[in-house]
Design a protein that fits this description.
By secondary structure, the protein is mainly β. The chain is built from three helices and twelve strands; from the N terminus they run αββαββββββαββββ. It has a single domain, classed as Porin, CATH 2.40.160.
């Protein structure tokens, strides 16, 4: 997932050396975007995780009709795990530690990790901008949402939470997800002052994908309803296929 994001960022900054000038008309253009979101969970997801963030990259084509079609990938991360040690109680001493292979107290950290990847379709309503490519944006999408508890063991010296063993505790879950967004997009007539912001919502129907949870000593077949809502901001690099005026290269 990190390699995908790094590759996307490289492409964004590579093309950032190209600037195009547009006039006050709706045009067909391809957009590359880098975004950040801050989310609050609800539903079953709120029982497991707290506030989380995402960083992501996407590509979207805006047609002259102001309809949009695109794809996106967002990496989810957070540090707030609800009741974080209960699932590891069976591995702990009375003082709440897990013994490592040296007979010492092992150090571990629990955090949230996941991703969303999907496609989206939307509409631009041109208002309050320097041209008809700026305005209110509304889009909806569908894809895959996945999340899990990341178990990180410092120095990798505590066997009960390493390798395949930690898979019995990480609660890896995924499933179909719907997403909605409404916000504002600003595309400057020239230059790199291109951005958007707004609010977004996710509704996912997920299941645990592990065959067996070691702490409960059974398979978890619960059908989950995981929800996220929050704010998103993004920087846009418009890749103009055919600008109304001349191209300018710097």
């Amino acid at each position: 997932m990190k390699k995908i994001l790094l590759t996307g960022l490289f492409l964004v900054f590579f093309f950032a050396f190209i600037k195009a000038q547009i006039k006050d008309s709706s045009i067909n253009l391809l957009k590359c975007e880098v975004n950040y979101s801050f989310h609050m969970p609800s539903g079953d997801m709120a029982d497991r995780f707290g506030l989380s963030s995402t960083i992501g990259i996407g590509f979207e084509n805006k047609f002259k009709s102001n309809w949009t079609l695109g794809v996106e990938f967002n990496y989810i991360f957070g540090g707030n795990i609800k009741d974080s040690t209960s699932m590891l109680t069976g591995l702990m001493t009375e003082s709440g530690y897990i013994i490592n292979k040296y007979g010492e107290y092992g150090t571990f950290l629990l955090s949230e990790r996941g991703f969303y990847g999907g496609a989206k379709i939307g509409k631009l309503i041109p208002v309050w901008g320097p041209n008809k490519n700026s305005g209110i944006i509304v889009n909806v999408g569908a894809g895959l949402l996945q999340h899990q508890i990341r178990i990180e063991n410092k120095d990798n010296n505590t066997p009960p939470i390493l390798g395949d063993y930690k898979k019995g505790y990480d609660r890896l879950s995924n499933g179909l997800c719907l997403r909605e967004f409404i916000g504002y997009q600003y595309l400057d007539n020239k230059g790199l002052i291109n951005f958007y912001f707004g609010i977004e919502f996710y509704q996912a129907w997920t299941k645990c994908r592990r065959d067996y949870n070691f702490d409960t000593m059974q398979r978890d077949d619960t059908e989950r309803k995981d929800y996220l809502s929050g704010i998103r901001i993004g920087w846009i690099l418009p890749l103009y296929r055919k600008a109304p005026n001349k191209y300018y290269y710097y």
